[in-house]
Amino acid sequence: MARFAANLTLLFNELPILDRFAAARRAGFQGVEILFPYDLAAGELRQAARKSGMDVVLINCPPPNWAGGPRGFAAVPSLQDRFRRDFERALRVAEALSARHIHIMSGKGEGPAARDCMIANLKWATARAPHASLTIEPINQHDMPGYFMCDYDLAAEVLDAVDAPNLGLQFDAYHAHMITGDVLGTWQAHGHRVHHIQIAGAPGRHEPREGDIDFAAFFHAVDNSGYQGWVSAEYSPRTTTEAGLRWMAADIAAE
Ligand SMILES: O=C(O)[C@@H](O)C(=O)CO
Ligand SMILES: [Mg+2]
Question: Where is the active site (predicted)?
Fold first, then answer.
């Protein structure tokens, strides 16, 4: 079974951010994601990760703002300079944290102009950072209306056009269910492109296994595919984080 990481933007947020690393470790996670590390001191985050023996698995490009700001600029033709500045900042933070992946968000847009802009920006970014692993993630339109990267076939088209080994798919099972209603089928079609997996129950985005996704079958398919990457828990705990963690013990026990 792949290794589990905790998304510290959503999990353990009963605690101050620097205490979440050790709490995730105690709970059995081996790595963490932090979607928005930009308002935090990178040195302190790095120290907290090292002290608790956690790998930093993923950060997002700035801004994006969980509280409702713009969700990236990669597909916004008028904001190409902004995209490049933000990407340079993401690279600096990813390097400081030894983060494994950087998720590049498209922002809002539609049609050929947005697609061509995203392809051009990703070509630039993959060449600018050949040793970084970059990802794009289809995100459902219910949660982010107008978001450009909202479909797996579109993601495949963009990945094929960029054609860079350091760019892959971020497969969030929650979004896959919300977009296609068929997580397994979507994995079968696109699993070979995946650099990083995230999970949550759907609908509701609470603990995995709460909701309609058959995670036992999904994990089985992931194992059979030979996927060697991380699986990050990115959900809103129904009550406290600790109270909802039995899903992970069950999956580890099933190994
Ligand atoms: O699924 C999500 O919402 C995230 O992975 C994300 O990056 C949005 O900011
Ligand atoms: Mg996600």
Answer: 137, 234
